[in-house]
Amino acid sequence: MTDEPMDVGASSARDEVRITAALTRRPAHAPDHEAEARTFGALARDLAADPRTALQRIADAAMRLCRADAAAVGIIESDGDGVQFRWHAAAGDFVPALMETTSVEGTPAGVALRSGVVELFERTDHAVDTRIGSPPHVHESLIAPWRIEGRAAGTLCVFAQHIDRQFDAEDARLLTGLADFASAAWQTVSALDTHVRVAAESSSERTVLRRQLSLAEEEERRRLARELHDEVGQHLAALGLGLQALSDVAPPGSDVDRRAAQLRGLTDTLGRELHALAVRLRPRALDDFGLEAALQSYAEEWARHSGIAVDLHARGPSTRLPPSAESAVYRIVQEALTNVARHSGAARAGVVLERRDGYIHLVVEDDGRGFDPERVAMPDADRSRRLGLVGMRERAALVGGTMDIESAPGKGTSVFVRFPVAGETTPRVRSVAADRSEQRADV
Asked: How crowded is residue 435: how many other Cβ atoms within 10 Å of its Cβ?
């Protein structure tokens, strides 16, 4: 094996040698497409559900897929003292000092960050060392850098502590894909932290900040949905094509052919789950075609899954609403129909959306078992229903609106939402009772 010189300005310590070229010379181990598909699908779901735990899950996944002894995620941070490097997640035998900062210069991580490609290192001195990229008794380290907006942002590293474990090109491919997830996770966490910090700085502007957070949440949902569809979806598509190519060269009816067909089925299932997850995060129809089209698509999908018939009626000007208003209406309808499916036992539901007199009027009704609104508001009531109603009311308030609920045991439920549309006039005043009576006529 030929040792390679380090990059100028990012040379490693004398006992760490870059041997990246060995990745192309070593025979690559056979890919485990089933494990890969399951892992990437699970990470996609975890990233959407709880971004703050995603980095740890990525480190765990990297150690498992690359058959490493340890793994870690490190991130570049800037502060008053300049550029620093900090470990944010670790898995396996190597447990670095998490959340402590240090310089990245002169380390394997620094080399990978400068080169922008996966780098492989061999350690010639196996003494305990706690520097970046150098876990105790490490034999080899494989480091994949990741970038944000073209700038080096962090690394995903796996480590082998035994001399008979050597990383190969297949490990490098897997690590690169996982590094893409690390980039998406860190951007999401950074955005969330930024908005939380802003909200804490000015308690006197809570309503304004909640509105900003709601907009930021929708923007993050939009970005995540597109990344899941465009980036992770491409990984699954490539995996499916590879499995098809494997079937094409395998004898028909052979074990390989049957196994490839099973894995293609799994890949297709993950693709459908990924698409459904992206739609739940942020339906593209809402951005591309508007609120009415998005609600129609959601209502049809909801009816198929819930088995409850739903009627949707929309009246008024066809011009687009402000993005914040469209998002508020969509999320309120989404939560209201979720409550219908979970709690009502209804056979039918209805949604009426009307735009008139400078206001949006929304009603969601069902013919289910109903409930006592005052009882549900109590602390010991069904938490999921109570939180759902609170969330709907808060979304209405963020766009300057109100929400009222009419329900009683055995008499179904009606949710009424009303809020002004910026820039539109209010030529006359109508009673709430008149609004509700007219809306009900269409349900």
From this structure: 18
